[in-house]
Amino acid sequence: MSKTVTLRRIVFVTAGELPFENTLQESQVLETALLYKKLGREVSVVSFVPIVPFLLFFARHRRSPLQFFREKYALHGIDFHCFFSFIAVHSWIVFLCKNVLVRRAGNRLKKEFSHYDGAIFLARSYYATAICLSFRTYLGRSLAGSSVVFDSRSLLSIELAIKAPAFKDWFYARSIAWEKELVSLSDKSLAMTGSAKDRFISYGKNFNQKVHLIRLSGFQKDTIPGVDFEERWKNKYFVYVGYLGDWHHLDALEKIFEGIKRYFPDARLKILSNNASLTSRTGSVVTAKYREVPNLLNECLAMIIPGSSTMEDKYIRMQYEQNMFSTKAAEGLNCSQPLIVNERISGLSEFVRKNTCGVSVSLDDARFSPDGFQSKEFWMRATESAATLSSRFEREYNGLEILQLIENET
Fold this sequence. Notes:
By secondary structure, the protein is an alpha/beta fold. The protein folds into two domains: about 5-215 and about 395-410, Glycogen Phosphorylase B (Rossmann fold), CATH 3.40.50.2000; about 220-390, Glycogen Phosphorylase B (Rossmann fold). Helix content is about 45%, strand content about 15%. The protein is built from 17 helices and 15 strands. The chain has helices at about 25-40, 50-60, 65-75, 90-95, 100-115, 125-140, 155-165, 170-185, 195-200, 230-235, 250-265, 295, 315-320, 325-335, 345-355, 375-390, 395-405, and strands at about 5, 10-15, 45-50, 80-85, 120-125, 145-150, 190, 210-215, 235-240, 270, 285, 300-305, 340, 360, 410. Strands 4-3-2-5-6-7-8 form a seven-stranded parallel sheet, sandwiched between helices. Strands 11-10-9-12-13-14 form a six-stranded parallel sheet, sandwiched between helices. Strand 2, helix 1 (about 25-40) and strand 3 form a beta-alpha-beta unit. Helix 7 packs antiparallel against helix 13.
């Protein structure tokens, strides 16, 4: 029988991520923290900031990138604690030194949070989870009723293998062992894909009771404009949102768009990115703040999720087959936007086909197979299908669902 515990303090913990404006820290952490505060919870946010990127930013801009977050959290009465650390999520060197770095970070938590009995530590990464577990070990039984939630975000084992190609099998095996330990010791684990969920469940008896599949969050409901399909159809804008580099490549994006132009010669590509130095031979680069994105998306007919153009390595294939749904996709669907997805991102491609909310495309020839791809009716139906999914990705809907899940004691 389930027992629901309400009004427990929620402590968001991040490590190795940059709490900068217009990053995932704003869209996935800050906005969710504000929602939980609005729902009546006491909320704290702890960020172990990677010191090297922070110093590079400060040297370039002569200002602290943390000020935006400090002001936002203070305005809403949320405790915000920042500590500098050498933890960087995808660094194989950091992985080798993780035990020392985690212990030091756990000690910092011990000093700040030893009085938070009953708190839920929502740890957003492998390192953040290890820090919280280390902190709880230090305190023993003194933090009564606390729980640690492993919010994995992605499968680090695959990403580390890609980042350290010379020793990829060794890093994959060691990080799998670490992952099993984190899932076993955490009170709950959250997975972003079905493959991740199945893997976590396989680590122990009855783990299906503490491993949960969750969806990525899009935007707040009141920031999403109404759909003007006629304007979208007239504009023929196709859009990509976010960073181009590790997992989504410019050449793949441009190849997909070149395929689109075979069907729509007047189509235009818009790339929403904070990288002002980015150039594209086929598209225009637009810089935008996070809160401006919904209105910009509403001008566009579809969002492109390009992935990679190279798939020779088995770990790169695993990354796209097991480890990606994409925040971009969640935000696009939340704005009733059909998706055009590289078919190698298999989980998302299957989702798009199943829900008829866009198309998947092969980079081998960048040709689109659905009947009527050029027709207005095809895109109207795809937009309507995306609109039926929109509410599933709203921040309020997802945030409340996750809050109920982590507060529920079984």
